Amino acid sequence: MKRSVYKSAMSHLKTSENFNEATYQKLMREIEKQESDGTNNPIQSKELVKMEKAKKKTVTSWTVGVAACAVLAVGIFAINQNGPAKDSVASPSATVQPSAIASEKPPILGKVQVNIDGVISEVSADGKSFKVGDLWVEVTDQTKLGSNEPTATAPSEELLQKEFKVGNIVSGFTSQDVASGRVTADVIYNNMAPAKEEAPIKGKAAVNIEGVISEVSADGKSFKVGDLWVNITPDTAMGIDGPTAAEPSEELLQKEFKVGNIVSGFTSEDVSTGKVNATRIYNNMLPQQ
Amino acid sequence: MYNSFELNESVLKALDRYSQSLIKIAFAYLKNMADAEEVAQDVFLAYLQKRPVFENNEHEKAWLIRTTINKSKNMLKAGWFKSRNPVPENLSYLPREENEVLQAVLALDKKYRIPIHLHYYEGYSIQEIADILQAKPATVGTWLARGRMLLKEKIGGAEDEAFSI
Fold it and tell me: B91 to chain A: which residues are within 8 Å by CB?
């Protein structure tokens, strides 16, 4: 095999005679440097340097970011504050401090009226003050009673009672500050007694008796329909009475109450007791075959 | 992992064993002996600092060669390297034929030059070169074939004589 000319040429290439020696010394210096630094792992120290650099970069970034935000905030604040100053063309020399603008509110012109509306929960001993909600309202000689509008009718005794009582419904208004919790009424439109409770309905309520007899008493004069026991008394009317009513047939109104019979009628007694006397029985018929 | 003593020992052994190989590879890349030696020194320094762990001597040598190539590439990219005008390496001391062949190889593009160097000087197979250069074996084969063809065109030779560099 022919020897490679290239390999021969490369082998004859002259290199520094002391390359290995110089490199060896360089390496030894590096080793000593590592030992004197107290770290045998230069990679770790490099990583530390990298981390420190990254930390510095992060801190710098944050500082720049915060500074930029601060500049923006100041700029926006300044722009907002300059806006109203531009409007004051008439007095350009009069510079208003931003804090003064913020604290000074425009004066309120005119009266603020607050409605008094509600039910009196408490009345003072002299009867000239009453409490509506959390507000004590005083009625003085200056308080106008009733509406003085031109189209308003004269207040009736019913709508505007003279005496303020607990439970009365009052309405009116005051122009005083309600925040104090006590005001003098300017006007009282109404002071009326609450609507009285409606009287209980009197009269009888008729309840239908309708269904299939499930049980019959031993004497045959009571039967059970659903959960209700129904007594048949001598006062119980049988059949349908009326000018157009036909005579009850034996088929529709049997004399004997039996289990399974279909009954209909009504009672005027309270069914909640579970046992009533039948006022009338219309039908008592056998079940259909 | 090495302890410090073992590491230092292995680096110094590698210096004795592979320094010439690394200098020659760097020279094939940079075409300048001073630069090649500087790169080789940096490679041994990297060995000391990075503390690589090798399976065997071949693995160690392959790592050193790859590091040499990478460091040579970095040097070629460096601004100071590009901006200078180095005096061409004086190879007149070599025999005429060797000088001619070496000059022809150095004149090749580096993508052909390095595989040729690794194959004809280091004796690596196509597969081994592919592993070192992190390329496909077929690609390395193509680089070698084209490099040989270019060298044949430049150096010539008898028609019936097998071309050899």
Answer: 13
Contacts of A119 by beta carbon, 8 Å cutoff, 6+ apart: A132, A167, A168, A169, A170, A194
Q: Do B40 and A19 touch (CB under 8 A)?
A: yes
The HSE-up count of residue B9 (CA atoms within 13 Å, CB side) is 5
A184 with A131, same domain: the answer is yes
Is residue A185 situated within a structural domain? yes
Which chain B residue has its CA at the smallest distance from A19's CA? B37
CA–CA gap between residue B74 and residue B53 (Å, rounded): 24
**Long-range Cβ contacts of A52-58 (<8 Å, 24+ apart):** none
Reported as a single tens digit per residue, the pLDDT across B70-79 is: 999 999 888 7
Look up the domain containing A134 and give its range.
Answer: 114-192
Contact criterion met (CB below 8 Å) for B155 and B116: no
Task: State which of A50, A77, A105 marks the end of a domain.
Answer: A105
The residue extents of the domains of chain B are 1-88, 90-165
CA distances from B39 to B43, B66, B112 (A): 6, 12, 20
Cα end-to-end distance, chain A, whole Å? 127
CA distance A16 to B34: 8
Q: How many domains does chain A have?
A: 3
Residue A73 one-letter amino acid: A
Is residue A9 scored above 80 in pLDDT?
yes
B49 touches chain A (CB under 8 A): yes
In DSSP terms, which residues pair with A187 in a beta bridge?
Answer: A144, A173
Neighbours of B105 (CB within 10 A): 25
- Chain B: nearest CA to A53, how far in angstroms? 20
Q: Tens of pLDDT along B82-136? A: 777 777 778 889 999 899 999 999 999 989 999 999 999 999 999 999 999 999 9
| A36 close contact with B: CB closer than 8 A | no
Task: Classify residue A247 by its DSSP letter.
Answer: P
For A148-179, what is each residue's pLDDT tens digit?
776 777 777 778 888 888 888 998 888 888 88
Structure tokens at A219: 């004497």
In the prediction, which pLDDT does A33 show? 82
Enumerate the residues of chain B whose CB falls inside 8 A of the CB of residue A27. 8, 11-12, 15, 44-45, 48
CA of residue A198 relative to chain centroid, distance: 34
Q: Which two tokens stand for residue A250?
A: 């034996």
Q: Which CATH class is domain B1-88?
A: mainly alpha
Architecture of the CATH domain B90-165 = Orthogonal Bundle (1.10)
